[in-house]
TrEMBL record:
This is Sulfotransferase. The keyword Transferase applies. Keywords: Catecholamine metabolism, Cytoplasm, Transferase. Pfam families: Sulfotransfer_1 (PF00685). InterPro entries: P-loop_NTPase, Sulfotransferase_dom. It comes from Poecilia formosa (Amazon molly). Its EC number is 2.8.2.-. It is an enzyme of class 2 (transferase).
Length: 219
């Protein structure tokens, strides 16, 4: 679905695939698809992929507020129940655990650049330079500094191209929660009770026991 002049359009002539076909390479595609749903042709053609993962608890909190304001999705219900739905993978796009593990285990075979949100917040310039090298690019320090500045949370929160303020309120009701809300690491501590955190950690250990993805800020 595309949005044109504030209204949804399902016209085949305006589909995302048609727009991609008209674009000159290199083309940039953003998706939330889990690894197993990415078309095989993407990997067969050795397309480059940058995957950004965020620790489970902060991801859960961010997703909860997004579901509160996103009127195209079911009501999220109370936070305590939302935690259980997250753990069971009963939210749009499925299980967070399967999602992050799917790209992680394939990262070397498919040449995926696997980034962590927490690293990007800690040292954005370092991560921008990693992306530059991965894409076989070379840009000046001034350009890198400008990228770091424009991709900061503060800058994106004020940018209509990033804050989704162009989306009408019957779809994204930002009076409930802004699309660009906090962008902080560790905000989950303001939402989880000690009991909820303990329960979540025990389930997390079970679901992630087969991989060693170095997430931070779980405790």
């Amino acid at each position: 679905m595309l949005w044109t002049n504030g209204r949804p359009s399902n016209s085949r002539e305006n589909s995302g695939l048609d727009l991609l076909n008209k674009m000159n390479p290199p083309r940039l595609i953003k998706t939330h698809l889990p690894f197993q749903l990415v078309p095989l042709g993407f990997w067969e053609n050795k397309c480059k992929a940058i995957y950004v993962a965020r620790n489970a608890k902060d991801n859960l909190v961010s997703y909860y507020y997004f579901d509160l304001m996103n009127k195209t999705q079911p009501e999220p219900g109370p936070f305590d129940g939302y935690i259980h739905k997250f753990m069971r993978g009963e939210l749009p796009w499925g299980s967070w655990y399967d999602h992050v593990k799917g790209y992680w285990v394939e990262r070397k075979e498919k040449n995926i650049l696997y980034l962590f949100y927490e690293d990007m917040k800690e040292n954005p310039r370092r991560e921008v330079e990693r992306i530059m090298r991965y894409l076989d690019l070379s840009v000046s320090d001034d350009v890198i500094n400008r990228i770091v500045e424009l991709t900061s949370f503060k800058s994106m929160k004020e940018n209509p191209m990033a804050n989704y303020s162009c989306i009408p309120s019957p779809v994204f009701d930002q009076s409930i929660s802004p699309f660009m809300r906090k962008g902080e690491v560790g905000d989950w501590k303001n939402h989880f009770t000690p009991e909820q955190s303990k329960m979540f950690d025990e389930d997390y250990e079970k679901q992630m026991k087969d991989v060693n993805i170095p997430f931070r800020s779980l405790i």
